[in-house]
Amino acid sequence: MSRLGTLGARLYRGEIGYDFVGKRKIWYGISILITITAIVGLAVRGLNMGIEFKGGAVFTTPKTSVSAPRAQEMAEEASGHDAIVQELGTGGLRIQISGVDTDKSDQIKAKLSQELDVKADDVNADLVGPSWGKQIANKAWLGLGIFMVLVVIYLAIAFEWRMALAALIALIHDLTITVGVYALVGFEVTPGTVIGLLTILGYSLYDTVVVFDSLKEQSRGITKQTRLTYSEVANQSINGTLVRSINTTVVALLPVAGLLFIGGGFLGAGVLNDISLSLFVGLAAGAYSSIFIATPLVADFKEREPQMKALKKRVLAKRASSAADGHPVGPIALNHSDELRRDSGDDDSYDDDAPGDDVAAAGAGSTVAGTRRTQPTARGRGRGRPSGKRR
Amino acid sequence: MAAPKKGRRQSAKSRPGRSLALILIAMVALTGGMFLSGHTTPRLGIDLAGGTSITLKAKSEPGQKNAVNPTNMNTAVSIIEKRVNGLGVSEAEVQTQGSDNIIVNIPKGTNAKQARDQVGTTAQLYFRPVLQLAAGTPQPDPSAGSSGKATTSPAPSAGASSKGSDSKAGDTPGSPVPSASQTTQGRAVPQALKADATPKADASGAADGKESPPAATPAPSTSADPATQKLLAKFQALDCSDKTAAARATAGAKPTDPTVACGKDSGNQSEKYILGPAAVDGKDVDSAKAVLDPQRGSWIVQMGFTGGGSKKFSKITGQLSQQQSPQNQFAIVLDGDVVSAPSVNTTLSKNAEIYGSFTQESSKDLANVLSYGALPLSFHEDTVTTVTAALGGDQLRAGLIAGGVGLALVIIYLVTYYRGLSLIAIASLLASAILTYTIMTLLGPGIGFALNLPAVCGAIVAIGITADSFIVFFERIRDEVREGRTLRPAVERAWPRARRTILVSDFVSFLAAAVLFAVTVGKVQGFAFTLGLTTLLDVVVVFLFTKPLMTILARNKFFGGGHKWSGLDPKRLGAKPPLRRSRRTTTAPVDPKEA
Fold it and tell me: pTM, whole model, 2 decimals?
């Protein structure tokens, strides 16, 4: 029997699971750390904008026997910047080099004419403006802004505003990380990068929406029961959709990885690399944020609601009383996850749980009590546990 | 197994065969259409296929010394960009070069001539009142006939007069006669000019008629001052049949001064005008679109003005409607040429319509130029040359290889994880690929859609995104199987929930695409188009292909019976009863469902 198959079943059932919501502070911390790194990287190193954004120089040569790829090598050597080479109808070449000013263009012109074996006077040098002027880039930003507003409205209607807000935060988180990676690695930002970044918009939200959809379904009528708090339901939703999230992410990342490592790897820097890198980082960040950031955030927001607070109190009270009666009615997912993951020193996981909410601080003791009830019995097998009943 | 008790909703209501037939017919039709149209590969963008490169040089106009500055150049670039990418998917590139050049790169396969016309039409747009039109007196019908002599046969002149009545402004169908005769007249005279190349006689005729109209005009040209005299002389000397001379005479007109201009009437014959100062200019036009006027069966251009523009427009039309012909006309002047000179009968305000003998294409071109505004500078075409692809075939090849490898990896993963179910996923991916490819190919000639490298990458990424929908559906089905249902009810129960999830998430993707398409221009817009298209196709494929196929296969013994390799084996999925027997349960069977 494949492990994977039964793993899915157990996750679905809540028999096993990871306490995403309970340990949210850790993941928030990690995300904040990454985000700060990204912002610092962006502020210190800035983005390496391509010719499309900042312009450069264009050299037009007369007819030459040098091939375009060879000329590209020469031009990149001579300038130290990326070059784009096109053959013209006349047999000459048009060589575009980014990030070149007038002084530099004269030097490059001299070098080029030497290497291409044409007269320096015949090489025509011109500075070009950005083809992706500020206006186009600004419009992409404007589109991003409008999209965010609309999507928040839509998610607020389809789900609720807390989920919409959490999804937005997760989305901004993904975009920041992706841009930060670009700043840190120093890859050139081209229109391809921007396009890759914009693809993340839809994709990052797709994953989040799948989890939210499940959460919405599972939390329906949540106030009518006293078994689980909202956070626990949220955690079960994440675990229940975990296989789906992993599968969708793997399946989306495989072609992108193909582009990045095969397409880009063989050819070196190029449009393929630009797009696939931003997609790769963005998709990974999107999958991460939908699981570790978006849903825990929703749980955080939700538990501020009076009725959720009341529910939590009721659940904890019931747990405390049933613990006293000797009936374990614990948050199942939590028990099992801990049982699987740590056979010793499990108590600290509940300490992580504790600082979650102000209310939780009061309830934390009883949570521990409730779980303590089950935990030792789990370890000490056959100590009159329900499992024993079944035998 | 606990299955039978819950097998309530059977798949009787769904008709999987019908949906499958529908999508197969669509695929066959699209593929057939693709071969019939003769385009079997998508049109490639300039980065992959090369194209035409046009260099435009800004003309420095006398009297406007500092007009060629970076601000104006950048404005011009963004306007040209919008024009050549009018439909948003043709992927042309526009950038400045040096201080006074603009390079426009148009991908191969675009109608390069039309694009050049659009780019070259520099569109300084003004609405000017007509002060004088050609010979400008209302006796001329007979003279038109006589001056037309042998060269003008009656038929075209009749045609011209009927068309002339079409070229009225607005929706006021009154008094077509004067404008008709006007247009006929205007047309006849230049013909005479052309015929004998002696403008003198007609010009003097024009001078005769000249004295009275300015007096009757409220416009600032007063009858006897030297400037008017100069203008008159210029008007007399103007010969619209000689393009360069005409261009010289009309060049450098300031919007605040009266000027002379040439135009073409509906029959494509030259006319000449004396025009008053610009009353409304291109910046005041808010939007313009070409529509087919159902009453006349001809193409017209509808314009909407901005707030300030409609005030100016209602003022000028208010004044003009009081005037006699020809001073009740206003000329729409594009780059010094009169495109249309409709007459006005009532005050118009917010909207205007331009009638003329437009074809669909010419009306669209004009609307395009009007709505995307006037260039701050005028340009002339410096060089036009073909360019090769900037990226070369190796990038495309690498992209396709990478895409193939990525696809293979996805398939391997799906097969390992989903076993038999992966057949459905692969078939659906295939259906999606066929639809995407044929539609993209057909959109090339259709709306100028060009596939550039980012779009190729987008399509490759779409493999994963499309597979997402199947995974959502499959996981739902497996969840239902875990609940203990047999496959047929499991599929039917899983579908409504999976459907909602798929629709909600696809809507988010589509929203992103739609917003980007509406707001941005150029490459981003082209990309947004690709994204929106693949998202829509994803929905189509899941609804019409994956779901029906799943329903049919659920009846199959291999899947329905939960064969070991079907990916739906209840035991493997850990449906409830078998799980009890599994070893793990000894440790912790606290599941409340069981308790």
Answer: 0.63
